[in-house]
């Protein structure tokens, strides 16, 4: 097992007594250290279920589980590999009752949060609600509650937001619901304020490993500290140069705090990069070099100089997409790459994907967009999830409202409004209110009858979902339920195009099938909320759904080009990477403040530039064998087309001017001509196929 590791990596893997930090640049095998350490821990007798590995995404968790399985086999199933958020769910489901949270609490997604905030703040404007959402989220990540936020508010605007936060929190309590930030904040509170729970978890955990440590925020760090306790048996791996989530509250202070909080911290540095050629690595090092150094680092590669990094000049975005496609084709034509999955196109912002999608489709090249709209964001899947949430937690009002109206069942807006007024008057959830004996005083008997019918139906579903176990039964149950509520018909009725309705229905079936497989224990839970391979009840499976954002197991083996944002590309690698849209204003993103401080080198701008530079560094270091960066002379900005200049990062890469530029279309043309010549020659000499 140690054979695939260099000496420094082995040192990190073998050190188990206390806290250990692996601090190293991109592609140096940090993630590999974690997977091997999991295996090593098990080998030395630590029970698999007492090992906890924390990753940045569900997908990374699933991948790590696969790798660990490759090293140690079935036992890897028992290791808890999950994100901080999934860990939070585990903590709260097991012990959240001390905080007054029922085990079947719901997890709200951002849309639910927006609509609750609209309600709490008395507005119909989604943009305003999202601004509050943003502010509240930052406060929560800083560990502030509504009262504390109000106390430290800098202006009236913040004061108002803090008061809305208070109302928002009341509603979450009433709905037995939590938002994503609570999944970190509440477990932290749980462990901090309840010694018994804390001791139980500390005793149960043998070793904690954290990947992408540089992108943890302050509350996550506190949570980690409480989990590992004084013995501090943990391994964190990270790279300060790849910290790209500052805008979401991640802080490099967490790296600085480690040696202070743990004087016995063992620090291991890795210097060899196993991913990229020297040409690529040099460009990466040059770009990151101007940033201040938290820790000195050097990185070298033994993979040889490799292909020079290319700069592709383009007129506009369509032209850029065309050239990127031509480049892929020419790399395939000259035999440098053969599978579509060897290619990735990386960009700053989601909306940039569209033009590349069109070009790829036109060229009939298969692709997937990762980090964009996920399966679980689709309206039809969210409809179904609302129902599932309602079975699990009857008090979940947002889920209640969505289920009772999708598909429509003749319960009108006025009825629901009156029910809402009634419920809030008596501080009941909508579901509780529905069965209240005095409901008849505010609603006509017919409406009460329909509500009762719905309520009984939900109770019945819940009762049966609890008893439905295994893939077969789950599949049958789900099919029957969809038929009962008339969901297929609902899709065809509400969609103008039949084709679209059909594709949405396919998604529904795929979703049900996937749920059923989970009930049968055939799929590992990527979210890590539960990891046994035994049969599960449909209700148990439904509990974990809200946390998943991808049906990752379907994505894994697809032989397709990846389109991804730079943020979502973290930790991944591809043989051939194309970094597109490298123009000022996009990468680095617009740096000047809107309030006219243009060009002024204030502290905030400087820090943002540093984070942008790290983002560029992350992008460059995803490439294994070839890298192209492209920019356009003109770009769309809203509805306008404006002149653009190449990103300063291109100059900072300090590429050798003579070799860098290329026109992939010319190259492809030449390759095709050469190929045609060869086959013509072959045909002429009679060496072609079929000659005898
Ligand atoms: P990032 O900073 O991008 O997250 P990382 O430091 O986590 O990168 P890994 O993803 O673990 O790096 O490793 C990068 C690549 O190098 C992987 O393909 C991995 O399998 C390979 N690798 C790591 N260590 C070794 C080694 N000792 N021998 C051979 N290959 C290695
Ligand atoms: Mg990694």
Describe the structure.
This protein is an alpha/beta fold. The chain has four domains: 2-92 and 193-270, P-loop containing nucleotide triphosphate hydrolases (Rossmann fold), CATH 3.40.50.300; 109-174, Arc Repressor Mutant, subunit A; 300-374 and 556-671, P-loop containing nucleotide triphosphate hydrolases (Rossmann fold, 3-Layer(aba) Sandwich), CATH 3.40.50; 376-548, PCRA, domain 4, CATH 1.10.486.10. The chain is 51% helix and 11% strand. It has 29 helices and 18 strands. A six-stranded parallel beta sheet has the order 3-2-6-7-1-8, with helices on both faces. A six-stranded parallel beta sheet has the order 11-16-15-12-14-13. A two-stranded parallel ribbon has the order 4-5. The longest helix has 23 residues, at 445-467. The relative contact order is 0.12. Residues 550-555, 594-598 and 687-692 have low confidence and may be disordered. The structure holds adenosine-5'-triphosphate and magnesium ion. Magnesium ion (MG) binds next to helix 2. Homodimer. GO terms for molecular function: 3'-5' DNA helicase activity; ATP binding; ATP hydrolysis activity; single-stranded DNA binding.
Concise summary:
This protein is an alpha/beta fold and 692 residues long. Residues 3-277 form the UvrD-like helicase ATP-binding domain.
Q: Which ligands occur here?
A: adenosine-5'-triphosphate, magnesium ion
Helix % is 40-55%
CATH homologous superfamily identity of the largest domain = P-loop containing nucleotide triphosphate hydrolases
Question: Globular, elongated, flat, extended or rod-shaped: what is the shape?
Answer: globular
Please compute the radius of gyration using only Cα atoms: 27 Å
Largest sheet: 6 strands, parallel
Number of helices: 29
Number of E strands:
18
CATH class of the largest domain: Alpha Beta
